[in-house]
Every structure is written in C-alpha cells, then in structure tokens.
Specification:
40% of the residues are buried. This protein is an alpha/beta fold. The chain is globular. The strands form two sheets. A six-stranded mixed β-sheet has the order 6-7-8-3-9-10. Helices cover 33% and strands 26% of the residues. Strand 7, helix 6 and strand 8 form a beta-alpha-beta unit. The protein contains eight helices and ten strands. The structure holds adenosine-5'-diphosphate (ADP) and magnesium ion (MG). The site of adenosine-5'-diphosphate has 12 residues, from strand 2 and helix 1.
Length: 247
Amino acid sequence: MTGVDIALDRVVRQFQLGQEETIDAVNDVTLVIPAGTAVALTGPSGSGKSTLLHLIGALDAADSGRIVVGDQELTAMRERDLSRYRRGVGFVFQRYNLLPALTLLDNVIAPVLPYRTHFDKVSRARELLAAVGLGDREKSLPSRLSGGQQQRVAIARALIGQPRLLLADEPTGNLDSRTGGDIIRLLLGLKSDRGMTIVVATHDPVVASRCDRVIRLRDGRITDDNAVDADTEGPALLERVRGQIPN
Ligand code: ADP
Ligand code: MG
C-alpha cells in the first residue's frame, strides 16, 4: 500500500448564515497532496480546517470545484459510491467517540462489523490494539482508560478497514502536550509502516512540525504552504484533475 494522491481544484464550500449572508468556509482552494505525505492543516479557529477535511473525506460535499482522491472523483460520485469511498477512509476526531458499553476489541471491530472483509476481523483488531500499545487491554471498557489511551483505541479503530487515507481533526486537542506528542508520533509511525496519506487539522504546533508539510488556512484560503515537492509532483497531479483523466 502506498497511500493515495489527493487533488483539489478550485474547491468552494459555502454555508448559509440566516437569510442573506453566506460564509465561504473553503474559498477557492487548489491543492495537491502526493500519496504517502503527512500534511498538517493549521490556522485559526474558523479558518476552514474541518470543512476541508470533511470534503476530502466525503462527509460533506463541495459547492464547486473538483476533488479527486486516488482514482475517484468525489465531486462526480453518487451517494452510494461515496459511502463505499468513506468506508475506505480512516477518521480520527478530537473526541474519541468510543462506544462505552463495548470492550476495546469490539470498539475496534465496530466499523467493519456490518461488512464482509477479506481479513479476519478479530485477529486484525488484536494486531491493531497491539500496534497502538494496548494489546493487553482488549477486554477493558473505554471508561477504564486515560484520554491518550482512548485516542489510541480510536486510531486502531480508524485503521481496521485498512485505509490508504487517514483524516484526523484535532486528534490531540483534548490531550496534554506530552500525550499529544506521543499520539502524533504513533500516527506517523503507523503511516510509515502502512504507507498511508495523512491529513491532520491541528492547532498544535508540535503536531504540525512533525508532519512532512504544513498548510496554513485563513478565511477558507491557503495563506502558507511549505510543500517541498509541489514543483515536481504537484502540477502533474493537478493536470490529471483538470484534464478529467481518472488515473
Ligand atoms: P476550523 O475547523 O478551522 O475551526 P471550520 O471548517 O469548522 O473551521 O469552519 C469554517 C467556517 O465555516 C466557520 O466560519 C464556521 O462557522 C463555518 N461553518 C462550518 N461548518 C458550518 C455549518 N455546518 N453551518 C454553518 N457554518 C459552518
Ligand atoms: Mg475544526
């Protein structure tokens, strides 16, 4: 697995505020993320980080522009195909959202429980719990865990579907800085092992500094981007999107 390329071309997402007013949460964003990159989205509260993540994860739909992830053009897909796409994306949120009545093992299995998988769900969940350092806690309930441990379970859960793309929205937002540092190190280590593409929205400068690339947003626009490979891989990927060539 090598992760997926992501390309956004002139993407706009507006929200209606009351009768007249609209807000451009994402305003004309053009952006290419080569497969296997870990990107941090930073910027003040309300700058559009979450909205951008939701668009890339197909939790929300753009008003205009095109979004291509791997060989799939999200902005041209039907809901049925989008829901299949979503199942192939790992999501991690600030709130861990573990199911309190389920053991850690069952929490990790939950996302794939309704589906047939080509892997054994239980053994895969065990491997993931071990990978996040909780291999000896599979029968525990979430309430027995610290915040950092709960986020580790949430990361294991996000990986159960073997995603090539992992999206994380303020994953360290509820954690002290040391635990937050451990979590981002864990995420980036898992990324290297599995070759995922990672996009993480974060206020935390420590988290951002550990990523390959930092993109800063303000009022829905990119104001800074320290991409090193944009000159080489970026244009070709964008060409693909603009030329409507799926792959
Ligand atoms: P961030 O994650 O950087 O804090 P968001 O993407 O959550 O920013 O929000 C960007 C802007 O869009 C903000 O002004 C926010 O109030 C607005 N916004 C986000 N989601 C909605 C929504 N569902 N309805 C209305 N406005 C929204
Ligand atoms: Mg946000």
